[in-house]
Amino acid sequence: MSGLRQRRQLSAMKIVQELDAFPKVPDSYQETTATGGGISLLTFVLIAILVISEIRYYMASQLKYEYDIDPDFDGKLKLNIDITVAMKCAHIGADILDLTGQNAETFGHLKEEDVIFELSPRQKTFFDMVKHINTYLRNEYHAIHEFIWNTGYNTISSSMPPRDDDTTKAPDACRFHGTLVVNKVAGNFHITAGKSVPVFPRGHAHLSFMMKESDYNFSHRIVHFSYGDPTIGIVNPLEGEEKIVTDNNHMFQYFVQVVPTIVETKFSNANTFQYAATEQNRTISHSKGSHGVPGIYFKYDLSSIRVHVREEHQPYWQFFARLCGIVGGIFATSGLLHQMVSAIIDLLCCRFKSTANDESHRGSQQWPSVSSSSSTSHTNSNPCPSLHSVTSSLLDADGLTPSPEILPFGKSPPTSVDESVFM
């Protein structure tokens, strides 16, 4: 029974061996060349470079943008503000009015601080940095938005540093900063002359009849203006804006489109808002037909489309499939390249030797007194020998034929075989 079991195991093993798709070639049948070695080195180096590049590509994440309808219609929206206006706080007021017509007092209050509009050297350095960075981001956002999300870029969240110079100049400006919680509907945040008073049944009005025209100056500087919670990767385009005017009655209008945004990256996981803004300003002159109320107006509207920014990694199976494709493709291509190079080298060498033999043959015809040994060496120097010459050389090695006689070029000597050898 044991012998029968062993035979079955051997037959099964034989069947498995016959299914081997990777036959092994003995080393004695393999030939190595300098050309093959050089191509092998280049192949290994190229494989290493591409594999490292593929690993880095796998480690890097990719952004995926999805769009859907915002279901949170009755939610609230944070409005974060830090604006300085070149008017005294007693002469201006900041309020908000939306489509619900609620009292502005329900949205919260901004802090008012009397400051000097002209910046100190330290403050100017800070604001110029904010202005320069935000200008670059606005101009190049479509080219670097993935870099911003993937690297965890954070906008300048710190406030304006305090003054570090000793000045006796009286405050001539008002800084509004803080957060308002508003409804998710279209609204109008504005800063204009006069303090606001509620108006029945709803709304409010700004009383400025005690002010002179020379008191108006709506030059302003925006240090921070954002919606929602501060989130890494969000760019606020209005930060770093500075408007300086020489006329008193001037109106600035910013039209803001707010987009709900869900962020899911390795640096942040938040439900926040982005916005895009356009700007228009003009001088109020009733005599020239330019009507309106001087001031700074931020007219915002909410988008019904929500953006979902998600960071994703390449799947494992796709990573391994790409690695196998890289290694196998390079090996196959390098094998074809090696065959082509070897064929070209053999072809060039064969032609070179044939040319050299033809020249030596012409020289032997011009000098007929060449010895028989020279003629013999000449006829055996053919780089591509015929079957007859190969057979003759084998018979010579076994002593079956006498030494060849000196014959004209192209003739073969007669051969005689000793029959006693085969007896």
Topology readout:
Blueprint: H1 2-18, H2 34-59, E1 62-69, E2 76-85, E3 92-98, E4 111-115, H3 121-151, E5 173-183, E6 187-193, E7 195-198, E8 204-207, E9 220-227, E10 242-243, E11 250-264, E12 269-283, E13 295-302, E14 305-312, H4 316-366, H5 372-379, H6 387-398
Parallel strand pairs: 11-13, 11-14
Antiparallel strand pairs: 1-14, 2-5, 2-9, 3-6, 4-5, 6-13, 7-8, 9-10, 11-12
Please, could you describe this protein's structure?
With about 425 residues, this protein is of the alpha+beta class. Helix content is about 35%, strand content about 25%. The chain has six helices and 14 strands. It has helices spanning about 1-20, 35-60, 120-150, 315-365, 370-380, 385-400, and strands spanning about 60-70, 75-85, 90-100, 110-115, 175-185, 185-195, 195-200, 205, 220-225, 240-245, 250-265, 270-285, 295-300, 305-310. The radius of gyration is 45 Å and the shape is elongated. The protein starts with a helix and ends in a 25-residue tail after the last helix.
